[in-house]
Amino acid sequence: MSENKIAIFQGKRIRRHWDDKKELWFFSVVDVISVLTYSKNPRKYWNKLAERLRKEGSKSVTKCHQLKMQAADGKYYLTDAADTEVMLRIIQSIPSPNAEPFKLWLAQVGYERLEETADPELAINRALKTYLQKGYSREWINQRLKSIEIRKALTDEWEKRGAKEGLEFAILTNEITRAWTGLTTRQYKNLKGLKKENLRDNMTNLELVLNMLAETATTEISQKK
User: Which residues form the Bro-N domain (predicted)?
Assistant: First the structure.
């Protein structure tokens, strides 16, 4: 998954496109179908599947984007592309043994989310295990979990003051990042070579401490003023 335009799955190439503004990967639908079904005509397969999804009332087809991607002949043609969420929804509709592992994984993730809703502590424990599996040190993990707590206190404060989650939170976060790094959040991610990855997950202990200090100060300033 290191290249910008091609991903490899089971030895086959899947064309993809990174949208800087939306910060989303878009994958060629026909390429994914080709891998999962071994269809001799994946485009025809997709057309029939899309027709069935429309009849079922699924919005997956309408959420696909027409993007120019390079074909085998070296030329660029418009092709249906879907982001990760929509792509997984389409995969759920593909009756193929190769799609079954994805469906089982989605069912497992859904079950885990329901468990975490009933008992939020499970989410914290799961996050801890995930960080350990990725090779982070316990010292770093403790800092990271503390940063999550501080971030939550900040966003709670913003909500009390009428700020809306999404764009307004992003604008405010951008100002905090600029204050202690001299860079916008996107510039900081670009500096570290990140795309979808979480910026805080790629900070050193010192960076986490500085960011926590900035967010704590912002919370206190908001509470007082």
Answer: 13-112
